[in-house]
């Protein structure tokens, strides 16, 4: 590589995803996937789409999926954009909506992809501190900015900001796009999609990866004013005129339409989460109230790093962040009841 290019790429610090080790079979509580399979209707739809039509390009506008999502959210399809996971949508949204002149605001403890995209597109950012309990304070977002990202619930802290507080941020920033990243909103939070008719500056980003058990299909969606959707389309079409493949479109439509299965799996995950929290508290764990499919926990007597290692040796993967403010915490995805019972029994053994 030429010196110019190697220096340029070396200055990029990519996002580091949760590990996917292959050395043995782990109980995987480290990447917030669903412990349950996708709806049988999704598998059937993908199988039936695996036919000779695969020789044809897919619909570049994904109209059928956008119609299904529009019906689900009570919007029209010109309010909907879909992409290969919400990460891809965020990757399009940053250059589409954020101004290089002023910093993008997001919380100091949050999803580490936000600074990665900022750097990639030559933008700047300013982090806004969350309070001691990791709450996002809406009033702090009244300052000059070039755009705002609010993850809700936040990752990895699980903290949820009520929609009324989001309205404070939207009202204070009418000239800037506020992205609300709702990757985990289906586990007890209320979506800010209801703000769309009132605020042309909100873009709500969601995903099928978590609550619809489809991390492997890579489907995300964004909802907002048609002008924002048009902005996303312009960026997308500058890279690739086709969005999702035929199998992903078929599977995603089936997932959105199978409301009963979605309700059942999210209800089970929330019940397991709340039960796990009740068992962990008497063991001395401090646990941030969670409206996500994961919990954020710390123990006063054990370093998070050593807990992480001891769990891994015993076949359980969780997420440890070697970062300021959160290096005493572990992020633990909610598995099945059996997996969480095993997790708790191993923790009991480690704690003695
Ligand atoms: N936003 C947040 C806050 C996340 O934690 C994740 C998952 N790592 C994503 C977006 C991206 O999810 P996906 O690309 O699978 O839709």
Characterization of this structure:
It is a single chain. This protein is of the alpha/beta class and 352 residues long. It has 2 domains: 3-37 and 266-351, Aspartate Aminotransferase, domain 1 (Alpha-Beta Complex), CATH 3.90.1150; 40-259, Aspartate Aminotransferase, domain 2, CATH 3.40.640.10. It is built from 11 helices and 13 strands. It has a 5-stranded mixed beta sheet, with helices on both faces. Strands 9-10-13-12 form a 4-stranded antiparallel beta sheet, covered by helices on one side. Strand 9 and strand 10 (294-298) form a beta hairpin. Helix 2 (40-49) runs antiparallel to helix 8, helix 4 (85-97) packs across helix 5 (113-120) and helix 4 crosses helix 7 (226-239). The longest helix is centred in the last third of the chain and has 22 residues, at 259-280. The protein is globular and about 55 Å long. The N and C termini lie far apart (53 Å). The model has no long low-confidence stretch (mean pLDDT 96). Bound molecules: 4'-deoxy-4'-aminopyridoxal-5'-phosphate. 4'-deoxy-4'-aminopyridoxal-5'-phosphate is lined by residues 85-87, 111, 151, 155, 181, 183, 207, 209, 215, 220. Homodimer. Keywords: Amino-acid biosynthesis, Aminotransferase, Histidine biosynthesis, Pyridoxal phosphate, Transferase. GO terms for molecular function: histidinol-phosphate transaminase activity. Its cofactor is pyridoxal 5'-phosphate. Belongs to the class-II pyridoxal-phosphate-dependent aminotransferase family. Histidinol-phosphate aminotransferase subfamily.
